[in-house]
Amino acid sequence: MSIPTIDGAFPGERVTGYDVTARRDTDYYAVFADIPAADREIWDRAKAYVDELGDRMAAAWDAAEYPIEVAMRLGELDLFNDGIAHPSLTPFSPLAAGLVNMEVSRGDGSLGTVVAVQGGLALRTLALFGSPEQQERWLEPVARGRVPGAFALTEPDHGSDSVSLETVARRDGGDWVLRGAKKWIGNGASGGITFVWARVDDPDAAEHGAVRCFLVEQDTPGYRGAVITGKASLRGIHQAHIELDDVRVPASAVLPGTKSFKDASTVLYSTRSGVAWSALGHATACFEAALSYAQQRVQFGRPLAKFQMVQERLSQMLDELTTMQLYCRRMADLETAGRLQPTQASLAKYHNTRAARRVAQTARDLLGGNGILLENRVMQHMADIEAIHTYEGTESVQALLIGRDITGMSAFA
Ligand SMILES: Cc1cc2nc3c(=O)[nH]c(=O)nc-3n(C[C@H](O)[C@H](O)[C@H](O)COP(=O)(O)OP(=O)(O)OC[C@H]3O[C@@H](n4cnc5c(N)ncnc54)[C@H](O)[C@@H]3O)c2cc1C
Hints:
The chain is of the alpha+beta class. It folds into 3 domains: 37-143, Butyryl-Coa Dehydrogenase, subunit A, domain 1, CATH 1.10.540; 149-260, Butyryl-CoA Dehydrogenase, subunit A, domain 2, CATH 2.40.110.10; 262-407, Butyryl-CoA Dehydrogenase, subunit A, domain 3 (Up-down Bundle), CATH 1.20.140.10. It has 11 helices and 9 strands. The strands form 2 sheets. Strands 1, 2, 3, 4, 5, 6 and 7 form a 7-stranded mixed beta sheet that branches. Helix 4 runs antiparallel to helix 5, helix 7 packs antiparallel against helix 10 (378-390) and helix 9 crosses helix 11. The longest helix has 36 residues, at 261-296. Bound molecules: flavin-adenine dinucleotide. The site of flavin-adenine dinucleotide has 19 residues, from strand 1, strand 3, helix 10 and helix 11.
């Protein structure tokens, strides 16, 4: 670690910058020391790609641009699998999936969200519920990043209560006609395919009122996806506001495995653990930036790291980080053993996004004024954590799910 200095500068401006983005691989409790070689190989592949990116995603974040070719390269590197078990996909353990989520988010939160959307949501929906023909046509292109995939559940009027979604799928002859609106849909205006969750409107059928999922190609007439602008978080990926204006799709567009809203929930339960890992990645980046800065920045004639209060704050951050790591590792072990309960994933998400917020806030403060400079990326992580704190179920919604489990009483309206 070197501190850039200039000789002959004006008094008081000798230090020109600080190296705070270098990877330190913090693992104080050796939580990841004994991971299987296959998982380490996948993790190393993710690390290598993040390192290769350099400032590319930082520039995209600053400019609020979505470099989709950079994102889809994760598929070329076979990093979208997200732990989905399917004969056509490369085997990928829950631990490997978590490490990819963590590592990519440590590098860049927008790319972390691409992994969650393309792999966690879109690919998982297709692999769990798609027909053999749908899987034959789309599984490989989505897994390999040749076709962007989107998962459209949330509506402008229904976020936490997406169970009340109003988008309808009406039978018309042999076709389905979709009408409604969706909001916040990652990859929803990227020229790929969208898995649209809609309520069946077919009064003569037993499934009338049931929620099912439809595979919609984004160039289908009536599908209008507009990129949401003005985001202060995850600025290197696009989310879309979608209008479905009588979008006609064939009967074969319905995913036969989807029968009710529970199927959408199944996908969300699985991806919730990925968010806990992403939060860990963000927190790792923030802790390491704070530690590096404290070792380099000199005030009162010595590095910040030599002050007792600074050491106390670094210790607090490490404590939070280690707890997050332990949650993640244990969660992966439980999932591997087939024993992970949905509310355990909720608790991990609940803990980790809250802890990541605290770590980011302390890191920002320890960097002083330099903490608000985008070039040091702490502020970017801090902003990105806000989005993952909200998506896949907010903090309050996780608390309601956990609360229902431990009390046996539902506090949902
Ligand atoms: C960056 C980003 C990406 C996203 N990507 C996708 C995507 O790809 N696909 C998709 O379908 N959706 C996506 N979402 C949507 C996301 O899942 C929703 O934003 C989330 O479920 C919360 O819904 P909401 O924003 O409408 O907030 P609201 O539901 O309106 O909640 C607002 C506040 O009220 C609180 N609240 C709500 N209900 C209760 C209650 N019963 N008790 C106590 N407090 C309550 C919430 O906790 C929150 O603090 C994304 C969102 C963001 C921000």
